[in-house]
Amino acid sequence: MGKALIPPEPAEIHEVPLRDALEERYLAYALSTIMHRALPDARDGLKPVHRRILYGMRLLRLDPGGLPKKSAKIVGEVMGSYHPHGDQAIYDAMVRLAQDFSSRYPLVDGQGNFGNIDGDNPAAMRYTEARLTDVARLLLDGIDEDAVELRPTYDNSGKEPVVLPGGFPNLLANGSQGIAVGMATSIPPHNAAELCDAALHLIEKPQAKSRALLKWVKGPDFPTGGIVVDSKESIAEAYATGRGSFRTRAKWVQEEGARGTWIIVVTEIPWLVQKSRLVARIAELLNEKKLPLVADVRDESAEDIRLVIEPKSRTVDPELMMESLFRLTELESRIPLNLNVLMQGKVPRVVGLAECLREWLDHLRDVLVRRSNFRKSQIEHRLEVLGGYLIAYLNLDKVIKIIRTEDEPKPVLIKTFKLTDIQADSILNMRLRNLRRLEEMEIRTEDKNLRNELKSVKALLASEAEQWSKVGEQVRKVRDMFGPKTPLGKRRTQFADAPEHDLAAIEEAFVEREPVTVVVSEKGWVRTLKGHVADLSGLTFKTDDKLDQAFFAESTSKLLLFATNGKFYSLDVAKLPGGRGHGEPIRMFVDMDQDAAIVSLFVNKGGRKFLIASGEGQGFVVNEDDCVGNTRKGKQVLNVEMPNEARAIATVAGDTVVVIGTNHKMVLFPLDQVPEMARGRGVRLQKYKDSELSDVAVFDSKAGLTWKDSAGREQSMTLKELSDWRGNRADAGRLAHGLPKSNKFGRGVE
Predict the structure, then answer these.
(1) Right CATH for 607-750 from 3.40.50.720, 3.90.550.10, 3.40.640.10, 2.120.10.90
(2) How is residue 724 annotated by DSSP?
(3) Which CATH number fits domain 251-330: 3.30.1360.40, 3.40.50.2000, 3.20.20.70, 2.60.120.10?
(4) How many Å apart are CA 482 and CA 190, to the nearest integer?
(5) I want to staple 567 with a disulfide (CB 3.0 to 4.6 A). Which of 440, 577, 634, 674 is the partner?
(6) CA–CA separation, 716 vs 745, rounded Å?
(7) Range among 508-512, 646-650, 746-750 rated most confident
């Protein structure tokens, strides 16, 4: 039998309130995400993973002109030495730095399959190779000269830079995307030459505001080109506040074919849009018949993008067709700007364009001062060594004698020639071949040159103006490297005003024009039937519901709904449910009050005039165009307060108004007694004691009044036959013999 295992003594247990423990741990996690994963440093524009990749590649000597190495080796080095996270995460980050359609100025030069704009994945890291680009070299330049602070790596086995020297405006030039805890960043790429011009202006005028810099920085410059169609004012606002967005559209041209035919060719698509997904989306919309102006879409891309879009017919307006595509697909994309960055590498803040460039310039100056101090100490050390060499040459025989005879020559040399420790060491470490006769002249020349250099370095360190002048020189070099005439520096994204199209024409372009029949039930359920259906006897309704009205329209028609609350609501026929069901309640399409009901629903033809009236007998004439509202909430036209409600509407088609009340009394009077208004309570049309208005109609006195009886037959009376009821507005009227008992004319909107 083996010994029973004795459980170890439990460690000391501290009781901590759960809230405190959670707060502390969550805050630690949030800070770690913000600082070490999601937000870029404003100085070099990099997140830790990118910084470590570039630093690791530099230590592997993967310089722009050298031979590339396997990506697996790079990832392994970065993961083992600096970035203790997943290899795939590191490789994905490196791939994005190499993709010329993701990064405006790639920092990694990749060989092999690094993915494409279609969204295809790159090859595995064992198949691809990589090295640094000239842009990355600019970012790393001076890192061996104490340009930046180094900190211990995660396992204390080495050092890594806190930030790169950053001799390139990488934050804005390449942009950055990231989601942290409670905050995010989204910075689109910009043109490096424009950023350098703006930075040079900032060096001259440090107090310049973001809006002043827009003279040079016109807006983003995406690697995939495209056209930004925002107004100058909204772009200026975005850069001033650090928050906004850029509406970016694909670039397209119209190519003429034989016999008047034409096609649209898309040559540039918005940034970060996968081409294959875009084509699939257009094809999907075609199948769903949501793009009636488009016949077909083809992807004929090779090295360059070439998306071919064929119109339904040659008569289609190309601008309108593209507008319909821009509205429904990623051919138009809104790219956000949220300049949330780590200032001084510590504080997350949303900053404007000027502050962003200011941070970069201040960093360049810090780097310059650090490098100059490093060079100063190097020169001082070398001058000390050269002083020792000179003494050795002038007293060569004595020096050799001391070295040959003394057991410990160093203290003797120091004492004899008043040398410093460093000088004594350098003499003792000197090679015999350096004792040739010419060496003395070379030492004196080197000493003189170094003293001149030391003088200029000290002058630089003493003068802030001199430092800024040197920074300006550095920025100018970068500007020349990536000037507008260089292939990489040439601006790719253009600016334009979005063409103003008639919204109604665009809406219409989305829908195929075909005849429909709109059916409304008494309970307010609405549906559409294909074609103009005259016989509605076969229609089924929900229990306790039946047909209220049906009328012919087209799929592109707009409807107007007049409700008992005195509001007019606008509806699109295209959005109404079709098919064989019972339809949907009309409240699904408009925000109608619970206690409101439909007075009338009809096709909006525009330009007509209506007489509208309330139950209390007040009303006025309104123009149809004044009834159209753009929101679901509707447009208040007839002002009514409960229990009073809108009761009737009639088309103004004539010169005489007829009003009938629920008391079966009727009055006729000239139309010119009723004012035309856009909104209000109206004037009294008929006077009532214990009843209210039932219906109104407007007719031509020469033609007489026509109405429908309870059986649906059309009846009529001439003006002469109606003479007993002629009067003035606001009369009580007389009993209407021979008119329908329902007190309705059955005319409504004609």
Answers:
(1) 2.120.10.90
(2) G
(3) 3.30.1360.40
(4) 12
(5) 634
(6) 11
(7) 646-650
Q: How far apart are CA 709 and CA 693, in angstroms?
A: 18
The catalytic residue among 127, 154, 569, 688 is: 127
Report how far apart the first and last C-alpha atoms of the chain are (Å, whole number): 104
The pair of three-digit structure tokens given for residue 127, joined into one six-digit string: 């198949």
Tell me how far apart the alpha carbons of residues 483 and 489 are, in angstroms, rounded to a whole number.
Answer: 5
Based on the number of CB atoms within 10 Å of its own CB, is 683 exposed (0-12), middle (13-18) or buried (19 or more)? middle
| Strand arrangement of the beta sheet that strand 598-603 belongs to | 598-603, 558-563, 567-572, 635-636
Scanning the structure block, which residue is given the tokens 């109609």? 697
CB of 230 within 8 A of CB of 382? no
Strands 656-661 vs 665-670: parallel, antiparallel or unpaired: antiparallel
Condensed to tens digits (0 to 9), the pLDDT of residues 578-637 reads: 766 778 888 888 888 878 888 888 888 888 889 899 988 889 999 988 888 877 888 888
CB distance 176 to 40 below 8 Å: yes
User: β-strand 609-614 against 618-623: which pairing, if any?
Assistant: antiparallel
Are 58 and 143 in contact by the 8 Å Cβ rule? The answer is: yes
pLDDT tens-place string over residues 157-188: 999 999 999 899 999 999 999 888 888 899 99
What are the structure tokens assigned to 75, written together? Answer: 């990832």
- Alpha carbons 571 and 528: distance in angstroms, whole number: 13
719/732 Cα distance (integer angstroms): 19
Residue 269: Cβ within 10 Å count: 28
CATH 3.40.1280.10 assigned to 362-481:
no
| Residue among 321, 326, 300 nearest 311 (CA) | 321
Sheet holding 251-256, edge to edge: 251-256, 262-268, 307-311, 294-299
Is 127 among the residues known to form the active site?
Answer: yes
Phi first, then psi, for residue 598 (nearest 5°) are -80, 130
CA-CA-CA-CA torsion for 52, 56, 59, 60, nearest 10 degrees? -160
Radius of gyration of the chain (CA): 42
d(CA 336, CA 325): 21
**Total Cβ atoms within 10 A of residue 250:** 26
pLDDT given at position 6: 67
- CB atoms near residue 351 (< 10 Å): 18
Spatial separation of the C-alpha atoms in residues 574 and 506, rounded to whole Å: 13
Report d(CA 24, CA 20) in Å as an integer: 6
- pLDDT above 90 coverage of the chain, percent: 38
pTM listed for this prediction: 0.70
For residue 493, what are the contacts with CB-CB under 8 A and spacing of at least 6?
A: 219, 220, 221, 222, 225, 226, 227, 228, 248
Is the C-alpha dihedral spanning 302, 306, 311, 313 positive or negative? negative
